[in-house]
Amino acid sequence: MDKKKLIFEAYDRSDFLNLENPTYLERVNDFTEKWLREDLGGGDITSRALRLKNNRVTAVIKAKSCGIIAGIREAQWFYNNHRIEVEVMKKDGSPIGQGDIVLKLKGDEGDLLETERAGLNLLQRMSSIASLAHEMVEKIKGKNVEIVPPRKNHWGLLDKRAVFLGGGLTHRPGLWESILIKENHLEALKNEGFDDCIEIALERAFQFEKTVYIEVEVENIPDCLKAAEKFKEYKRGKPCIIMLDNFTVEDTADAVDSLRQKKLRDYVIIESSGRITPDNIAAYADTGTDVISMSYITYARNNSDLSQRINRNGAT
After folding, report:
1. Are the beta carbons of 277 and 34 closer than 8 angstroms?
2. What is the pairing mode between strands 240-245 and 269-273?
3. Which is nearest to 186 in space by CA: 146, 230, 148, 251?
4. For residues 284 and 108, which has the higher predicted lDDT (pLDDT)?
5. From the CA atom positions of the chain, what is the Rg in Å?
6. Is 262's pLDDT higher than 50?
7. Parallel, antiparallel or unpaired: strands 214-218 and 179-181
8. Residue 166 has pLDDT above 80, yes or no
């Protein structure tokens, strides 16, 4: 089994997260237009009160902090959609330093003022996530472990793309794409009278063809081994994943060792989730796990700062 290939098959949805995909484009449009509508309301009364002339002007978006830039393609689409020309100075996923020009803009002054906050919100949010993902990837560099975001995030697909631009993978885009059997699913089967919930859940999952991968969440080592035995029995080509939910570093290492002793390690991909922070991520990576899922990268502080400045003389 080519495990690396299966890991990317299960966790890499970068081809789905692009503007050529109508579903992703719809999400970008939903977020940006909602911000714009909320911000504008009945219009920009400051510009009206000051009686500003709607001249054709240029502007630059500059970085006020270091990190990884993300959201360039999304921002370019948004600005173009509002009659603003864009010259890209920094590509998605590239490093930026304080003072770097990220985008050059040209349009009517009214359009630039009205779209300023929505455009910056998009770039700052995605760049913050990309920067944090990059920091985590650097912490486990050379350990042959992938970083992914869970579905525990605010912006859904945009957050996942930002993680990818920071060097991580993406995980499934939604409930519709792959089977992930969680504690509540197993409890539901238990309430139906099944004692061997993991076995029953996996048997039913393998009968369902429309899934990219099958994953089951476990809370202890015996259940981990039970799931691995079932995955071995089916020997299917699609990725088979065991999520170690809220395992400590020590328990994760013990679970991986137990799988090896039982000659089950080669049949499964191990995903570690819960309790993982910047302080212990390297220790988790040393346990032999394959993938680390952490909400820190999408929930943590906003550490990317960008500004837009208009130049009324036309120079940038």
Report:
1. no
2. parallel
3. 230
4. 284
5. 23
6. yes
7. parallel
8. yes
Other residues' Cβ atoms within 10 Å of the Cβ of residue 278: 14
**The two three-digit tokens of residue 155, written as one number:** 């912006």
pLDDT, position 269? 96
Q: Kindly report the average pLDDT of the chain as a whole number.
A: 90
pLDDT grade for 23, boundaries at 50, 70 and 90: very high
**H or E, element range at 231:** helix 221-234
Instruction: Please state, in angstroms and rounded to a whole number, the distance separating the CA atoms of residues 243 and 146.
Output: 14
- Read off the pLDDT of residues 265-295 as tens digits, 9 standing for 90 and up: 999 999 999 989 999 999 999 999 999 999 8
Burial class (CB in 10 A: 0-12, 13-18, 19+), 73: middle
Chain segment 125-140, per-residue pLDDT in tens: 999 999 999 999 999 9
Angle (CA) 48-49-54 rounded to 5° is: 35
Q: What integer is the mean pLDDT of 135-155?
A: 90
Helix H, strand E, coil C: the string for 103-159 is EEEEEEHHHHHHHHHHHHHHHHHHHHHHHHHHHHHHHCCCCCCEEECCCCCCCCHHH
**Per-residue 3-state assignment (H helix, E strand, C coil) for 276-293:** CCCCCHHHHHCCCCCEEE
DSSP state of 176: T
The CB density around residue 163, as the number of other CB atoms within 10 Å, is 30
3-state helix vs strand vs coil in the chain, percent to 5 = 45, 15, 40
